[in-house]
Amino acid sequence: MIDGHRIVVIGGGPAGMMAAGRAAEKGCEVILLEKMHRLGSKLAITGKGRCNLTNMGGIDSFIEHYGKNGNFLRNCFARFFNQDLIDFFETRGVRTVLERGQRVFPRSGNAEDIVECLAAFLRKNEVEIRMEFTVDAILTDVNRINGVRGSGVDISCDAVIIATGGRSYPMTGSTGDGYRFAMDLGHRVRKPEPALVPIEVEEDFIRKMQGLSLKNVEVSAYARGRRFTTLFGEMLFTHFGVSGPIILTMSRQIVQEIQKHKVTLSINFKPALTDEQLERRLLREFDHHGKMKCRSVMKHLLPVTTIDIFLTRAGIPADRHVSEINREERQRILHYLRDFRLTVKGPRPISEAIITDGGVALDEIDPYTMQSRLVSGLFFCGEVIDVAGDTGGYNLQAAFSTGHLAGESACSMCRASSTRK
Ligand SMILES: Cc1cc2nc3c(=O)[nH]c(=O)nc-3n(C[C@H](O)[C@H](O)[C@H](O)COP(=O)(O)OP(=O)(O)OC[C@H]3O[C@@H](n4cnc5c(N)ncnc54)[C@H](O)[C@@H]3O)c2cc1C
User: Which domains does the chain have, with CATH numbers?
Assistant: First the structure.
């Protein structure tokens, strides 16, 4: 047994680094154990390498971005929120910039600056860092933490902070180990599911649309004939289905729904126009280009790669002259411009998801400290808990805020127990 250390943090992602640094800053001895050869492997690839670290939305709208579990974070955010996070980085030399959608990035556009800043925070507060150390088990004695086991050694401690992340992008080290640790200690874990994940569709023609990006479209998802979500924005076609910002955002609801019912997606190519405006627009194009073939005229309304697929679906020969299109066929074109359906096969695997939905049950964690309600000295932070946010900086803010609170509380607990001894 290596003795004398008080707090062990498992995982060197954003939550773990913040927790370890904060606990050490408050005066505790801290060891950070990370299974990879470097800190922040996932953090370094966030925001396409630019790291969307938070969002400047107000607290109420912020919390809505985590769905029904968002309220759990309210206390945590009251203690350390978006402006605190920006100040944290700015005072340590990382300038930030506000972009479209209230999203905040490092001004350098380089996620590595965020990783390096957190590593410097750990060094400054003398956190002992052990890389390539995989924790296998957490050791307890009558529902009280007394150490961790891994890489051939036992390390004794008074508190353990689990910051092992979710199960997405496992090559970054997040392989779901924390769920097992929590369950071994008696915690319930809501089944980890992929979220912010691309969606596979059944239609084969999708392969021909691969690479196509559509801006300003509206996508709705339907189950049992009922629309359960609609979003406006940008989407992308891939070789297996659909992705892009609005698809990723609605994927969590799709994943929930597809377990019970068949789900279809409906694309509205022209959401800015009313039915009358769209019909007038189509008539105008047909009048102007009466001698041209349908395929050529539709270029004024749709991206080229979609036209043949679109017209086949509408049952209209692409080579037909528009002057030969009758009213009923025009109505079919209008219908498909409004409601172009795709059948959902399912989400891509969790390894390709941006985050994991599910995790350690929130009713077994104290939201004022992040401490387990079952095991004294056990704390949780980051994606391992049952909180999953939308894209836009919400997941990193949750990781940093829960990490900050877990580090601070673990240190307070250790100090209180050493005073009592
Ligand atoms: C491609 C991509 C882009 C993203 N972009 C953004 C973005 O721009 N903005 C945003 O808000 N969110 C983004 N996210 C989500 C965000 O990265 C995560 O929510 C966040 O990293 C979670 O932080 P964490 O510290 O809880 O876990 P992680 O970052 O997953 O870190 C967990 C760490 O624990 C270590 N570990 C695991 N098990 C063990 C063990 N047994 N022993 C020792 N160490 C262990 C892992 O190696 C890992 O380093 C993105 C995610 C991906 C995949």
Answer: 7-195+354-420 (3.50.50.60), 198-347 (1.10.8.50)
